Every structure is written in C-alpha cells, then in structure tokens.
Amino acid sequence: MKTLTGRGRLHLFDLDGTLIRGSAAAVEISRQLGVSEEIAALERDFLLRGLSPDEFAVQAHALWSALTPEQVTAAFEGAPWLSGIREVWADIRSQGGRCAVISLSPDFFVERLLDWGADSAHGSRWPAVPFTQPIHRPGILNAAAKVTIARRLCVEYGVTFESCVAYGDSMSDAELFAAVPLTVAVNADHHLAGLSRHSYAGSDLREAYALVRENAEGDLSSP
Q: What does the radius of gyration of the chain's CA atoms come to, in whole angstroms?
C-alpha cells in the first residue's frame, strides 16, 4: 500500500453506513435472527419519525431477545465492510496518528474492531450477550455524544480537536462534522451536504483516506 499521511492526527470513524457500506450493525444482527423487516421499520422510525437512539435500543433489544454470541460473530463477519480498513489503520498508526471508532451501535459489536487495529472503539453500552439485563438508557449514545467522546480522546491522546479527521455518512455524524475541520463523507446521504470537506463514494477505505492526503496535504503536515 502506498504510504499516506496520518501523522499527528486522530482519525474518527463512524461504523454504520461508513465502515459498513449500505448496512448497519443492527441490520446484520437482525438478519441472523430473521427479523430484518422489523429492524427496517425501526430504522425508518429513527430516520424519518424522530425515534430516539435509546428507544431504538430498547425495541431492538426486545427483537434480539434470543441473540447468541455465535450470531453476533456471524453478523460481524458477514457484514459488507469496506476494503482496506486494517491497512488504513496500520498506516495511520505507523506515522504516529491514532484511529478510533465512535458509533451508536452496540458496544459488543463495535469493540470487535479493536482486533482490526483501532486504538479505541466506542459504542452504546449494551448488556452482555446472551441478554439477562435490560437496556440502560443513559448508556445509549446519540449524535452529541460523538463530539463529547472525540474531545475526551483528544485529551487522552494529547492532540488538539482541530487536528481530528472525521469520516461519516449520515445525520448521526452531522454534529461531529460541524465541529471538526477536516471531514470525509463516505457514501453519505443528504444530512452531510455542505458539512464535509471531502466526499467519497465507493467500497475501499484506502481511497477515502487518500483524499485526505491528496487534497489536504498542507493541513495534515502541520504540527
């Protein structure tokens, strides 16, 4: 892989619709349980009718009452991931940068990306699978929480918020895109129109990452 510029930056990645193209953790989990139509209805309520993230989680938890660890593994492994994720993260880290995933999806799914080379992975706090506990609503993330987590990571990693790069696709990323100066809309919908510095449509994260180097070399090379 051609070396790309990741030095000194904290790269923040959304999961649903971004690292997973055209799908989401909830969709892939629901496919394993045969409740795809039900989760699609919840997704529509979330996108079009203002269903809150915590209420979405409560209703999804009920749909997934029989979920097993093996089904979570199958959902994760069968998801339509972008190509090149491990390579991009390895390149970022090799140059002194950091990469983090921040997602509204369940932490038991998101945190599996630590094994792919993410420095940190943050999802909504769900009970362990198989479920014996209900959803704790305060642990479910929303769009504003992405900004809060990003700021906390900047302190942890010793970088400025202005040195972050955000990658996302939809309305849950809009607040972060409005706050971070360098952004890449990846297979994005209209919610990020006018908010992103760069835009990418395709199936390879290496190409989205290359936009940062090719079009913002001066930004990325600054201290």
A: 17
